[in-house]
Amino acid sequence: TKGNYGLWLYYNRLDKDILFKALLNYVEPKIRLEEDRLNTLRARKEAAGSSGREAKQIERDMDHHEQFVSEIHDFKDKLRRAADLHLTPDLNDGVVLNIAPLWGLVPWKEAKKYWEELSEGKYEWSSIGKQLREKKLVKP
Q1: How far apart are CA 82 and CA 18, in angstroms?
Q2: Cα-based torsion angle of the residue sequence 56, 62, 67, 71 in order, rounded to the nearest 10 degrees
Q3: Is a pLDDT exceeding 90 seen at residue 68?
Q4: Element housing 79 (H / E)
Q5: Per-residue CA distances from 139 to 81, 108, 112, 116, 133 (Å)
Q6: Who contacts 131 (Cβ-Cβ below 8 Å, separation ≥6)?
Q7: Which terminal residue of the chain has fewer beta carbons within 10 Å of its beta carbon, N or C?
Q8: pLDDT of amino acid 53
Q9: Residue 51: strand, helix, or coil
Q10: What is the mean pLDDT of residues 62-77?
Q11: What would the DSSP string read from start to end of 97-129?
């Protein structure tokens, strides 16, 4: 949401499982790591008590970290939705059509426009357009 967490995917290495690999190898471990850090902050807060400068600083750190963990969960949910489409990238379709299913994750406004056009049946010549039609994900 705020762009505090992201992944780079190398275009020439895209395959049908890349989004699942990203979830399994990067996003889910990152969530576990950051939740552990949040739990450590909670333990420090409990040990510090509820008053004093240190307690207030830990509380601010906890708030910041809770937002970060929430953001990574949101990232995971959006990535999972894209992965669950089970689309096989085709480099011949070009970057813009391959990135369109990730429109909710990329900092590129064009991706959403192309996703909407794909969903409306445009680019029927493309591999991704054909896959969307086969999966009945194209609006009638």
Answers
A1: 11
A2: 160
A3: yes
A4: helix 53-83
A5: 18, 23, 15, 10, 9
A6: 87, 88
A7: C
A8: 87
A9: coil
A10: 96
A11: HHHGGGTTTSS-HHHHHHHHHHHTT--TTSHHH
Residue showing tokens 């994900």: 137
11: number of Cβ within 10 Å:
12
Highest mean pLDDT among 5-9, 50-54, 112-116: 112-116
d(CA 40, CA 45): 9
Going from the C-alpha of 76 to that of each of 7, 9, 31, 42, the distances in angstroms are 11, 15, 9, 24
Residue type, 24: L
Spell out the residues 6+ positions from residue 32 whose beta carbon is closer than 8 angstroms to its own. none
Q: Give yes or no for a contact between 87 and 101, defined as CB atoms under 8 angstroms apart.
A: yes
Residue whose structure tokens are 């969903």: 119
pTM metric for this prediction: 0.89
- How does residue 54 score in pLDDT terms, banded at 50, 70 and 90? confident
- Tell me phi and psi for residue 118, to 5 degrees: -60, -40
